[in-house]
Amino acid sequence: MTSQPLLNRFKDLIRSKHFCVYLLAALLILIAFNSYWISVTVRYQPEAWASQIALLLLTLVLVSYLTSIGHKKQDAQLYQATQSQKILYNIAASINTCRELRELLNRFCESIQAALQAESVSVWLVTQQQQIEYVASAGIEAKHYEQYKQFHLDPEFADMLKYRHIIYDNHDYGPVSEIPRINARNTCLIVPLHYQSRTLGFFMLELAILRFVNVEEFEQLLSTIGRHLGMAIEKTRQDQESRREIIVQERNLIANELHDSLAQTLASLRFQVRVLDENLQPTSEFQAIRGIEQVENSLDEAYKDLRELIAHCRTPINSQGLVPAIEKLLSRFRKESGIHVLFQKEWLEPNLPPNMEMHIFRIVQEAINNIRKHSNANHVRVLLRNNANGNHQVLVENDGVGFDMPSSSEHPGEHLGLTIMQERARHLGGKLRIESEPDEGTRIELTFMYTNETNESPLDRLSGIQ
User: Fold this and answer.
1) Do residues 462 and 337 both lie within one domain?
2) In 3-state terms, what secondary structure has residue 118?
């Protein structure tokens, strides 16, 4: 039972480079003693020369063996370095073609899983509320992360992410240890993601076999990948913010042009008609005065609509995104109307393109404006919900007076707000369902699907903004 381990240890000893070096030193010492023996002996001269030749041959074989070991090690190092460069290139090439953050991270997970033959890969990012949130994965279905998709980033784990290059296994920290894995016996590695001095999150690898012989080089590879991914995440966020700012500037420019041209003209016409009305009051007939008052009322209404259009053009969504903009809208509505508003947020920071966020906001805004003008409601409920599979739901409902649903035969100019809401839903690639009956309230539900797998270019989608 013990002979086999001893034999294996002996084989390992023979293959050891240090053992071979010691043996070579011993052979050189023997050659030196044998040379002295040759110089002093006469009787055993043939035997001395035979042993000298044997020692020289053995030394030559040993030197050749050491040289081959060195070449093999150099070849292995060169191969591993080449593999590392290839992995870095493939990952960089895959993520640099992405313009949306979720698309980038899903592509990254697929690339690194294929490159390292990992069992699973997942990416978790730090939110503005200091939560760790699941964003993307490969090798394991997203539904497995549903109940673990978000947890608080406490100081202990924050320090681990900040000061460690690689975190081995996930049993060092409670919430992370609960993240689903394919096999508990697999090696689990956590690689922090940084940009400058900020911690952006981490990606987690589950490996059945560590295929890199040199562990230090493997850790260096993962650390380099983490730095590249951190820079790519920040660049993508900045690009999305730049696109958002471009849209905001364009819409504000349109609003300014409307204010400086058409609004000023309407204001001037309102003033002139009012002066004309005052001058004609004592002398004109009732019918003429009534006609002038109708013109004046029409101008007032047009001016009011234009002011609303100007306010509509000024983009209300700031850099914080859709949810804060809707919160601000509902807060103002609550103060002005006195209506109780319930806002339910089950929104996973989906990083939608700016124009899609704008369409969603405008649908909610139109629904809220209709409630203000027509519903006589006491309670309003607004729901934002999505999941990791890309399903999105927006719901606005109230307990007001409701209305009869318009038929398709009615005049196209009527119910224009509902028509525009339907058009916005089509821009999102979704459906808008409106349910209402007299004295039964109104329910408006928007549903659409958006994931990183969409084939439509984000730049193309920008042209559809309304």
Assistant:
1) yes
2) coil
* Rg (alpha carbons) of the chain, rounded to whole number: 37
What is the number of structural domains in the chain?
4
Q: Chain-centre distance of CA 151, in angstroms?
A: 17
- pLDDT for position 17: 65
What does the pLDDT average to over 125-138?
Answer: 83
Q: ∠375-381-384 over CA atoms, to 5°? A: 130
Residue 459 corresponds to which amino acid?
L
Distance of alpha carbon 256 from alpha carbon 100, whole angstroms: 31
Q: Is the pLDDT of residue 246 over 80?
A: no
Please tell me whether residues 258 and 196 are part of one structural domain.
no
- 216 found inside a domain: no
| 190 and 270 both lie in a single domain | no
* 175 assigned to some structural domain: yes
Least confident segment among 284-293, 346-355, 393-402:
284-293
Q: How far apart are CA 272 and CA 170, in angstroms?
A: 76
Query: How long a stretch of residues is the chain?
Result: 466
Is the domain of 269 the same as that of 161? no
> CA nearest 206: which of 156, 127, 144, 163?
144
Q: Tell me whether residue 228 is in a domain.
A: no
Using CA atoms, how far residue 250 sits from 65, 421, 427, in Å, is 73, 22, 19
| Domain extent for 71 | 3-84
Q: Are residues 70 and 145 in the same domain?
A: no
Residue range 209-220, pLDDT digits in tens: 776 667 777 788
**Amino acid occupying residue 328:** K
Contact 385, 346 (CB under 8 A): yes
Confidence of residue 394 (pLDDT cuts 50, 70, 90): very high
Query: Average pLDDT of the chain?
Result: 77
Q: What is the layout of strands, in order, in the sheet containing 187-195?
A: 150-152, 131-138, 120-126, 198-207, 187-195, 167-168
Residue 453, SS3? Answer: coil
Nearest to 227 by CA among 237, 235, 238: 235
Q: 80-94, 101-115, 316-330, 343-357: which range is least confident on average?
A: 80-94
In sequence order, what are the residues at sequence separation of 6 or more whose Cβ sits closer than 8 angstroms to the Cβ of residue 417? 366, 369, 370
